[in-house]
Amino acid sequence: MLPTLIASRLTLRPLRDEDSAALHPVFADPAVMQWWSHGPHQSPEKTREVVALNALQEPGYACWAITLDGGAAHGWVTLKDRRPGVSEIGYLIGRSLWGQGYGREAVTAVLDHGFACPGQRRVYADVDPENAPSIRLLERLGFVLEGHLREEWETHIGVRDTILYGLLAREWLGRAAQAG
Asked: How many CB atoms lie within 10 A of CB 81?
């Protein structure tokens, strides 16, 4: 069972099918979806399909709804096992919460949870090189640029490069120890 994560201003709870109504405006927003792997959702039905798939909480995949109080979802954070000890993190947050540190808070909570799991040694993120806000978030959290893959993705805005950022458990846990 996926735990609920409590941050100072946020509650990250397991994504539920019924979150699709609250998340549709997020997934329909062209600004939010600019750097996503697919374009904005044109219908609530599409959002329902995507939310239902991500709410399954299958082994090796976790998806938390970003909420202010445990209620309506404003985005999500995912953590997907890629191989033993290595996970990929992904996140999406509604424009109404941009620029206020909520993304950093949500991703921090998931990293704290992920790196507390025995054997978890590394988390990485796959980011479009032009997604400056996401790059800033990752770098502020201590992620290190590890690679640039040319013409890696075919998306709604064309064929795109991707950059990979990585964070090791010892780096994350060492940073937390220095802060404490």
From this structure: 16
